[in-house]
Structures are given as C-alpha cells and as structure tokens.
Write a structure and sequence with these properties.
ANK repeats lie at residues 52-84, 85-117, 118-150, 151-183, 184-216. Keywords: ANK repeat, Coiled coil, Repeat. The protein is an all-alpha fold. It has a domain at 1-7 and 21-110: Serine Threonine Protein Phosphatase 5, Tetratricopeptide repeat, CATH 1.25.40.20. It has 16 helices and no strands. It has helices at residues 4-12, 18-28, 32-42, 56-63, 66-73, 89-95, 99-106, 122-129, 132-140, 155-161, 165-173, 188-194, 198-206, 221-228, 231-238, 253-269. Helix 4 packs parallel to helix 6, helix 6 (89-95) runs antiparallel to helix 7 (99-106) and helix 8 (122-129) runs parallel beside helix 10 (155-161).
C-alpha cells in the first residue's frame, strides 16, 4: 500500500479534480470528518493549488478552520508551501486575523519570520489587518519586530500608516524601533501624520519617534502633518523640543510646520 506522501506526490502531477473541489468545500463548511475521509480514501493532497492558487491547507488558515487544520497537519503535508500569491499558511492566518490557526502553525515550528514574495513576515500582515491578538501571538513566538520588507517597511510603519493605535503601542512597548525609515525615507511618524491619526502620532512620540527625521525629499513629519491639516497633530508636534543639527544650528521645525499648515489653510479657503 502506498504511503500518503506517495499519494500526495502522485496527485500533485494530476489535474484539479472534483474530489479536490470537494475537499475545498469541506474546509469552507468546516467539516473535519469529511476532510479526513477525502484525504484518506481519495488520497488527496491538501496543499494542491486550484486554478485560483489556493489549497485546502491555505483555506484552513485563511478561514480559521482549526479542526480541519488539525486533520491536515496529522497527515504530514509540506507546511512551508505557498499559495498562488506567494503567501504561506502562516502569512494567511495573520493577514486574516486567525490567531488560533496562527498559533497552531507556529507550534509546528514554522519559521516565525519567514517572508512572502514581497519580503513581508506574518507580523507585517498582522499589522496591516490590525490584528492585535495575532501580533501578541507572534511576539510570544519571538518574532522580529523590526524586519523590513522589500520596500524597507516595518510592521510598525504599516501599523502607523493604517492608524492601528493599539497595535503600534504594543510594538513600541516591546522595543520596536520607531525611527526606522523605508526606502523613501518615510518613518512611522510621518505616515501617521499623513493618515490624520492624532492618537497614533501621540503613541509614536511617546514611544520615542523623532519628528526631525527627513525623508528622501527632505520633508519632516511637519510636512506630512500639514497635508492632513489636523490641529491636534500640529500641537503634538509643536510640543516636542527643538532639535539641533550636528553643527549646533537649531532646526526650525515648529516654524516650518506653521508655514506648511498656514499655506494649506489659505489654499483650501481660496
């Protein structure tokens, strides 16, 4: 009798079948017994991708089908396999805010900092979705907080851009670097200002974000804040002590904010 792995290998070379489709449907409908029966009796490969690039295994992670996931894991699939978009089950669980499936996958000793085709880790995906529970789980499994993706973006930068206040505060409290800049020189604070989230700006400043950093075009957080035109953000930035350049000259940060904000205000009124 052929082993399950041998059957998986054989099935991977075959076309997508009706049985494969039934396996996907069993996961979608959260029917673990049916999933088990299809894998054993039909010799199906749960990591086999359909025409849309998804598999029963990846669907478990995306939909939070923990019982179905347990069945599939018991049959020893390749847990590192990615779907058609380059995401692993770990990335999909974080992306879709499925902390129980995420934890179960990490218990299989998957690399917590594995990257997708864009260079993003599960923590990046948790930041985008704003899933604090997944972020906490990843931290428990020693995820790197400051990993940069292909564009130099960290989870904190993404969280700030998406105005994920609690998530940003969590990362900062655990030592995430608030002053890492992406490939365009943008920091988490700059993007929080641009996103018009005073609460996120406040959390970042409290966590040590430097408002005097400049992006690739020489713009500071003041410029981004002026674009949003938020008076509270203006006040938060103004309350920061003035910085000095290496030559001892004071950076005219506050006045530059007033200039940007005043110019924007006049432009909107006219």
């Amino acid at each position: 009798m052929k082993s399950l792995k041998a059957k998986f290998k054989k099935n991977e070379s075959q076309d997508w079948s009706k049985s494969d489709e039934r396996l996907l449907q069993a996961v979608e409908q959260n029917e673990p017994d049916k999933v088990a029966a299809l894998i054993v009796k039909k010799g199906l490969c749960p990591t086999k991708l359909d025409m849309e690039g998804k598999s029963a295994f990846h669907l478990c992670a995306s939909r939070g089908r923990l019982d179905c996931l347990e069945v599939i894991l018991a049959h020893g699939p390749d847990i590192n396999v990615t779907d058609g978009t380059g995401f692993s089950a770990l990335h999909l669980a974080a992306k879709n805010c499925q902390p129980e499936c995420l934890k179960r996958l990490l218990q299989e000793r998957l690399s917590v900092d594995s990257t997708d085709s864009f260079g993003r880790t599960a923590l990046h995906h948790a930041a985008v979705s704003g899933c604090l529970s997944c972020t906490e789980t990843l931290w428990d499994f020693k995820a790197s907080l400051d990993t940069q993706d292909g564009d130099g973006v960290t989870a904190l930068i993404l969280g700030a851009q998406m105005s994920r206040v609690e998530l940003c505060a969590f990362l900062l409290d655990r030592g995430a670097n608030p002053n890492i800049q992406d490939s365009q020189g943008r920091s988490a604070l700059m993007l929080a200002c641009e996103s018009d989230s005073a609460e996120t700006v406040e959390a970042l400043l409290r966590g040590g974000a430097n408002p005097h950093l400049a992006d690739a075009l020489g713009h500071h957080a003041a410029h981004y804040g002026a674009t949003a035109g938020n008076q509270r953000i203006a006040q938060l930035l103004q309350n920061r002590a003035p910085a000095t350049e290496g030559n001892g000259e004071e950076v005219t940060y506050h006045s530059s904010f007033h200039f940007h904000f005043h110019s924007l205000h006049i432009h909107v009124k006219t």
